[in-house]
Amino acid sequence: MGERRRALAVIVCLWSLISLSGAARLGSGPKQTLEVQKHLRRLNKPAVKSIQSPDGDVIDCVHISDQPAFDHPYLKDHKIQMRPNYHPEGLFDENKVATSTKERANPINQPWHVNGKCPENTIPIRRTKEDDVLRASSVKRYGRKKRRSIPKPRSADPNLINQSGHQHAIAYVEGDKYYGAKATINVWEPKIQQSNEFSLSQLWLLGGSFGEDLNSIEAGWQVSPDLYGDNNTRLFTYWTSDAYQATGCYNLLCSGFIQINNQIAMGASISPVSAFRNSQYDISILIWKDPKEGHWWMQFGNDYVLGYWPSFLFSYLAESASMIEWGGEVVNSEPDGEHTSTQMGSGHFPEEGFGKASYFRNIQVVDSSNNLKAPKGIGTFTEQSNCYDVQTGDNGDWGHYFYYGGPGKNPNCP
């Protein structure tokens, strides 16, 4: 009898812990379920066709005019711009955008492509599942970053290192007006210690102060178990016009970004990824402001113009960016009171170099004449270089580049 009672006590104890962890997130009950279902209906638009991806995702091909962007009150009568007027360095020209065979040597794709493609006039949207929303702290916060997750290089106060739990290893430029940024980013699959942590590599276009008025456009790759329910490396975008308070979200999880491309799904996995001392893979991302319409456009690789953020979404970025950042970010939740072992980049320090450490190469900015240029006066920043570090360089092939990242917890990063 005693054995049975002990087993029951263990089960009850475990169940309490599970219930508590659930309660700490979304809670439960009919009201909560209704709210989640309502939110799912808002996000998952009617599909013309659905494609099952080998990684477990479902990709819905949604008519271009039914996408989440058009839930925005200011976009009710918006006429979709199917192509930018200008590309950095001149008029937009499909032929100029198409890639050379040299660049195609290691193509990156999305796993869902093996099972089909989305028809013309539709866009691929990763279907949001109930579990995705339930992992969030609230329905309202689903798909949003926490506040204070932007590195503020100049005023890093050692006492504030883990105030927001976010740590970075970045290169940056400031002090000018920037109309875009570009980078080729090495792709890895970093290990994440806790499901509420993430690791990403991205570029940031920033406007405003680092207060409540911060404007940001971000794009890159990330591993985020909380957001996606797995440890896959995924393409993502983000935007906010009020320092992550009430505006903006990842990918297409709110109204804002208008997608025009029917081949690349935001938030979907990308493959292959780089392996230590083995094949290296990277992705190119370009974000620029169309001088005619003023919208911020995004291009993935050399082939895919994905869509745009309408300029009215922003205050400061309606004109230009005042700072560009490139690099890695992780969440350090300090499990057990120690630094997380969540990896940034490849999980190896910059000094290990090519094939071991992760890199950004050919980093560039777009100037007021809509030309891509090498950035001037690059600074670097990391809160704790013993945990994650960054080292810059430049050469003929890679232009301005840097290696970055690290393992997190190690003997020098307790």
From TrEMBL:
Positions with biased composition (Basic residues): 142-151
Domain Neprosin PEP catalytic: 160-414
Keywords per UniProt: Signal
Signal peptide location: 1-23
Sequence segments annotated as region (Disordered): 142-161
Gene3D superfamilies: Outer-capsid protein sigma 3, large lobe (3.90.1320.10)
Protein's recorded name: Neprosin PEP catalytic domain-containing protein
Species in which this protein is naturally found: Eucalyptus globulus
